[in-house]
Amino acid sequence: MHLDDARTAVYRLYDSADHLLYVGITHDPEQRWTTHAGTKTWWPQVAHNTIEWHDNRQLAEAAEKTAIRDERPAHNRADSPWIPGPRKLEPDEATIGEARSNLSELLASVRLLRRCVLLVGRGRKQVGAIVPAELGQLIQRAGGVDRAAAVLQASLPGPAEPDGP
Questions:
Q1: How far is residue 51 from each of residues 13, 23, 24, 44, 131, measured CA to CA in Å?
Q2: What is the pLDDT of residues 95-139, one digit of tens each?
Q3: Can you tell me the distance from the alpha carbon of 70 to that of 59, in angstroms, rounded to the nearest whole number?
Q4: Would you give the end-to-end CA distance of the chain in angstroms?
Q5: What's this model's pTM, rounded to 2 decimal places?
Q6: 28 near 6, Cβ under 8 Å?
Q7: What residue spans define the domains of the chain?
Q8: Helices then strands (H, E): number in the chain?
Q9: How far is CA 151 from CA 137, 147, 155, 158, 164, in A?
Q10: 137 sits in which H/E element
């Protein structure tokens, strides 16, 4: 049987003063409440609940929408005419999707950098470079950045000789 055709619960969560905190739908109330307990900051306020079963998800969704509109639970956002939609993000904020994407890119960069080393020259001119680890090992064997640079400079061809008179 497809879940859309299965019996579906509309549940209401109340605090100790009988204020309606949340209205939701699920096929498995206990599992859904476990999820809420781990993700909702208001969960510790829940003192009791009610469950109303419907023959299918479509009927439950209609009942949930009506309950949210008419009963005004404190923490429902979706379908609530009383609570504005998502707030406008500040310039330095990102959506969850953008944050996940940025984190994925950052992790890929970190994986790449694990195979690299940072080399810093000594002396008056401090120069840093991120290079592959293998190159870093070769530079270290040459005696460090400054020594490797001197060897490299010596191996480069000099300026072209001017042609004779």
A1: 9, 10, 10, 19, 62
A2: 777 877 777 777 777 666 666 666 565 555 556 666 777 777 787
A3: 17
A4: 97
A5: 0.50
A6: no
A7: 3-71, 107-155
A8: 5, 5
A9: 15, 6, 6, 14, 30
A10: helix 133-141
